[in-house]
Fold these 2 entries.
Entry 1:
Amino acid sequence: MLDPVHYGIWLVVVTAEIFSLACMIRGKALAEHFTILLYLCACLASEFGAHAVLTTSGYNSDAYYYFFFYSKSVLTICLYFVLMGLYSHVFSEMGAGKYIRAGAALILAGTAGISYYMVATSSEKLVTHFAVELDQNLYFVGVILTYLLWFAMSRLRENRTRVTQLVLSMGVYVSLSAGSYAINNLYPLLDRFWEYYFPITSMWLPLSWAYTFLKVPADTRLATAKVLAPTP
Amino acid sequence: MMASMIFVISFLALLQFFVSYTRSLIAESREHELSEQTREICGFTARTARADHFPRLLQLIDLCPENGGDGFKMRAVTVYFRMLSLASRLFRWLMVPSATGWIDSERGSCAYAAAVALDRRIAYNRTIMAQQAGQ
């Protein structure tokens, strides 16, 4: 059974995701940012799946442990689709969409392959450890891809405020997650901390997207030079 | 070794993305001109704001009901302001005056963004009160 704190966190996360979907509909951004819609739906499915596993097996069960890390891996792959959607938006005028998609698929397959090799050659060979390592590496590749996108945007003088905020909020989330999984990998015994930490941090993307779709009109422009921190 | 390296790089990337994201939230406020009444309440005389106004502005914002979801923005700006305050103390201790000048101007921008949020909340509440009075 779920205790009140876990249930409260679960409820807040689901509410944030539904609120973000509602803001997307209100901001008329469903067709333009279809991959974000896909990601939010995958998040909701994962939350309801987690709830079903938790109520039947509990927090300390192997079933929940497997479900949590593997559903996170699937969500991270969905996050790659969001990132590719953002790449398509930025490079749409250059007609480079299909090269970006092919490149992203190669990077994703390469990351999964390297992660598997690293765990397969280690002495422990734990499947659960593979999941933590895979998440850490997938998020880290996400950090690099987001950074490259942000670098390209600053060079191309991309000025759509919505795209800028979506890319930057994505950068915050993937770097926060990659760092957190790296710490989790280094100190796996802090279980009690991570079971609260990961659901709370997962609210960042839905809330930042909700803000962008609700408060930033589609035609607003903002020069990236105003956003880049000058060298002190 | 690999996990430690990923942690360090991710932490640095997180800092840069968060600073840029918050600056994108603040940039929108710079275009907004404060009403005379809000300037009076805040104690501002021009379009610039002093960093030491920020805590008082947050208290005033808390007194006004939220105006359609600017709470998220104010939370992000508050985190950024606290990060800058911490960095300011660190650079003063390290005696790097060129960095503290930039940090103080950023903290001033945070205060201005807070004043704009307060201005919008006051205007929103006035509209609501006027509507209620008309009914």
Note: The mean pLDDT of chain A is 83.
Entry 2:
Amino acid sequence: MSAIDEVQAVETSWTTGRVIEKSLPTPHTVRLRMHVEARLRHRPGQHYLVRLRAPDDYTAQRSYSIASDDDDPLVELLVERLPDGEVSEFLADVVEVGDELEMRGPIGRWFTWDVRTPALCLVGGTGVVPAVSMLRTARRLGRSDLLRVVAVGRDPGMLPYADELGRAGAQLAYTRVDTDTRPAGAPTAAEITPLLPGVDLAYVCGSARFAAYAESLLLDCGVSPQAIRVERFGPTG
Amino acid sequence: MPVTRGFVGRRRGQERRLPPGQYDTGGSWPVLTAEATPRIDTEKWSLTVDGLVERPTTWSWEEIHALPDSSYFGDIHCVTTWSKFDVSFRGVSVDELLAAAGPLPEAAFVLAHSSTGYTTNLPMSDVVDGKAWVVWDYGGKPLPREHGGPARLLVPHLYFWKSAKWVSRLELMAADRPGFWEQNGYHDRGDPWLEQRYQGD
């Protein structure tokens, strides 16, 4: 039994979240740490809905992955500020510490990790967020050995949580800059294959373009399609 | 609930066309799937209607194209809050498939299966009388693989997770059986106009 088994799937309803901390860790992201009223426990990989309400009762809602561990007193969300993003621009530009937002969660029971199954996360851009939650939870439960993370970004300044991921042992792959350990470029089969022995589940999270690349790469490395769980986001053509 | 400080929202004017909580995604069509996108050869493709039917029936790619053509032009709504207006799909009406297979009187629910193992459940009443299709053509072109090609289920009056991509089998059942997302916290029926997104809605 893992302590995460105590987190039961339950029906969710709307509640209020108060912004306790806000920061802009990279040029295109906003990090919000929220106190959530009547908060329910969550598993790493789940997400919350955030809903904004205008004076005429018009609403806009989006879902955002949770970065925090269930044990954290606050719920941490990291949101990519999309051009013309009705909700993300508001969260990045208008929201201040102390504001209250409508929230609902945790949502999702598929893209979650049980902190028992040996797993690989192949994540890109703000798709690193669920992997951060998985790493934090694994560390608390003393099961960091179960999780391997490959995080992909354009460059160190654009990859959210790059420092934390690096400290937690994740492999960081930058597509646009060379580092001491690897040339610029997307991760290759030669980099992924050594991470696969013993891995039973692969989590892919990122933009549709990233997810398509990551899925093909894992299939090329011999991962069974049934062992791949995918979370995609962002607009596509 | 109280107004969000400073929020006025920006999209207006399509309210009557947009179900509650949805926004118009315009020209884009977001891809949302939980699994790896399969590669399916139409030579090997087939669709089966079985379960509580008089004549379990399987169609090849060629055979299903010989059935009467049926189209949908209208809007689609995804539970992740995007809606897309004025899309056109072409394929065959589920009514046509059911007429061939002959549902037994006790058939009250359908479980749609995809070749990936994905499933979604629907009451029979949501797939009959011109409300559901199996489609292979989008906007006059073959349905792209990432959007469920070669063929997907189309049930546009419900949230789009009910429109199973890569559909391979419609299983008629007497009792409801939750599908993939329905077991994973989503609503059993998924009517966008009633905002039936998640369990408890």
Note: The radius of gyration of chain B is 17 Å.
